[in-house]
Amino acid sequence: MWESIRRWFDPRELRSVGSTPDYRFSLANERTFLAWLRTGLALVAGGLAAAQFLPPLPLRHLREAIAIALLLLGGAVAVRAVDHWARTERAIRLGEELPASRFPAVLALTVGLGALLLVVAVLLRALGGR
Amino acid sequence: MSGPSAAPRPARDPGLQPERTRLAWRRTALALTVVTVLAVRLAFTGDLGGVLLAGVTLVVWGAVLPVCWRRGTGTGPAPTGGRSLPLAALGAAALAVLGVALVLRGLW
């Protein structure tokens, strides 16, 4: 694990493998990384907003649980983004297949499930409140 | 498919790729700033701990923003890789961890 973290910070090692590709591929890889990073930052912003703008919910500490779940998900997205960027850059330089990943599917399902739970919660409240 | 005309077309793509990447870095810097503002607002409770946590948040922002800015304003394609990417990602992760600490702090 520390080995891969060290590798993220060592551009010389990344540049030493394989051959330098068309720089447009590297830039596209970098933009993909940035898009993921912004996705992570949006989740972090959502968590911070939930913590301070949601009213206290009927279930004790539910608000804090939602906030922490969003924050942890956002942090994981950011760290995974840089790891995936480094592995993709390596594959491009070596002319290998791009690394496959289940992460986008898992993230999409998680966000979809969370949204579904919130819809159910809102409906229950609307029906039970009157 | 390239047509039979051998006349080189104006080089649009090579100019646009670095530009798009620069704009992506600037958008990221903007998102980072929004997160920082939200975190400082949550941290700043008036007591000493709140001021300290708000200060730490601002230090993380102050460390990562110049990285994004340098990468986002350079001319021509920047060299492959570099430390800017892991630094930006770790900055975002640090803000997430800081946010968890702030939420937990609010519980007691």
From TrEMBL, chain A:
<dbReference type="GO" id="GO:0005886">
    <property type="term" value="C:plasma membrane"/>
</dbReference>
<feature type="transmembrane region" description="Helical">
    <location>
        <begin position="33"/>
        <end position="53"/>
    </location>
</feature>
<keyword id="KW-1003">Cell membrane</keyword>
<keyword id="KW-1133">Transmembrane helix</keyword>
<dbReference type="InterPro" id="IPR052053">
    <property type="entry name" value="IM_YidH-like"/>
</dbReference>
<dbReference type="Pfam" id="PF02656">
    <property type="entry name" value="DUF202"/>
</dbReference>
<keyword id="KW-0472">Membrane</keyword>
<feature type="domain" description="DUF202">
    <location>
        <begin position="24"/>
        <end position="91"/>
    </location>
</feature>
<keyword id="KW-0812">Transmembrane</keyword>
<protein>
    <submittedName>
        <fullName>DUF202 domain-containing protein</fullName>
    </submittedName>
</protein>
<feature type="transmembrane region" description="Helical">
    <location>
        <begin position="65"/>
        <end position="82"/>
    </location>
</feature>
<feature type="transmembrane region" description="Helical">
    <location>
        <begin position="103"/>
        <end position="127"/>
    </location>
</feature>
<dbReference type="InterPro" id="IPR003807">
    <property type="entry name" value="DUF202"/>
</dbReference>
From TrEMBL, chain B:
<keyword id="KW-1133">Transmembrane helix</keyword>
<feature type="transmembrane region" description="Helical">
    <location>
        <begin position="84"/>
        <end position="104"/>
    </location>
</feature>
<dbReference type="InterPro" id="IPR003807">
    <property type="entry name" value="DUF202"/>
</dbReference>
<dbReference type="Pfam" id="PF02656">
    <property type="entry name" value="DUF202"/>
</dbReference>
<protein>
    <submittedName>
        <fullName>DUF202 domain-containing protein</fullName>
    </submittedName>
</protein>
<keyword id="KW-0812">Transmembrane</keyword>
<dbReference type="GO" id="GO:0012505">
    <property type="term" value="C:endomembrane system"/>
</dbReference>
<feature type="transmembrane region" description="Helical">
    <location>
        <begin position="51"/>
        <end position="72"/>
    </location>
</feature>
<feature type="domain" description="DUF202">
    <location>
        <begin position="13"/>
        <end position="67"/>
    </location>
</feature>
<keyword id="KW-0472">Membrane</keyword>
<feature type="transmembrane region" description="Helical">
    <location>
        <begin position="24"/>
        <end position="44"/>
    </location>
</feature>
